[in-house]
Amino acid sequence: MVIRSASLQERESLFTFHFLQALVLTGIALFAFFSGMILPYAAIKESIQEVGVLSKATSLQKILPSQVAYEEVTPKKAPRSVLTATSANGNQWGVSKQIGEHTWTMKVQDDTKTGTAQEIFQALNAYRQRHGSGTLAWDSKLGDFAQGRADAFTRNNSTDAHAGFSDFINNQDGFHKLGFMALGENSSFGYHVEAVHLIEWIYAGDAPHNDNQLNQQWTHVGIGVSGVATDLIFGGKKM
Asked: How far apart are CA 169 and CA 64, in angstroms?
């Protein structure tokens, strides 16, 4: 949604986060959805036997052979002074607000250009280095998948609360196709921002995204950009 006023254009942007692990136990893939922690095997097994999927809060986890946690991360940077102002409808600039289980919104002002995938990659690694998380390597499979996700957001004019990501992991053998035992996603839609602003401002607006992007278990990343859509796919425990 674009909001116009006098000489300033605001764009209310949606960005989503997803936290996913998969656990393969006794040769059977068992999936559990839960928040910020790894449940004991007995609890996971009991929950899955009863309802198939256990859903809580804003985190989605799946665990493959070893219990590998991954989260989505958002970097932190002091916002520009304009972002501390209050917009015409009373919402603060640059303040992240959760509006759904996997969806957050933020008032932002468009930059003059959108960061490319490689610029975002460089900004992400620079941010991780400053916070002691280490740099990530680029992975072409993750990059291709991320680009496909960003293209889908453009076609649908919105993110999808990680539905396509979950479907790929759950139903299309996504772990083996991408070649990682742990996968995570940060996605956004609705604004033109330069790479540093995306990493150190947009995804820095809430703890779940920030924790995910700085997660030290990630070793690789792929990034897709399409119009005002971005998608970051993180990988750990490469097969």
From this structure: 11
- Provide the mean pLDDT of the chain: 66
Angle at 85 (CA atoms; ends 18, 113), nearest 5 degrees: 60
- Residues 48-91: pLDDT tens digits? 333 332 221 232 334 343 333 333 333 333 333 222 233 334 44
Pair of tokens at residue 70: 């991954």
In angstroms, how far is CA 170 from the centroid of its own chain?
A: 17
d(CA 48, CA 196): 41
> Could you tell me whether strands 103-109 and 97-98 are parallel, antiparallel, or unpaired per DSSP bridges?
antiparallel
What is the number of residues in the chain? Answer: 239
Alpha-carbon distances of 238 from 14, 24, 37, 106, 141, rounded to whole Å: 30, 16, 22, 34, 12
Ramachandran category for residue 183: left, alpha or beta (phi over 0 → left; psi -120 to 50 → alpha): beta
Distance (Å, whole) CA 139 – CA 197: 23
Question: Between β-strands 97-98 and 180-189, what pairing exists: parallel, antiparallel or unpaired?
Answer: unpaired
198 in Cβ contact with 230 (< 8 Å) = yes
Please give the Cα distance from 105 to 128 (Å, whole number). Answer: 24
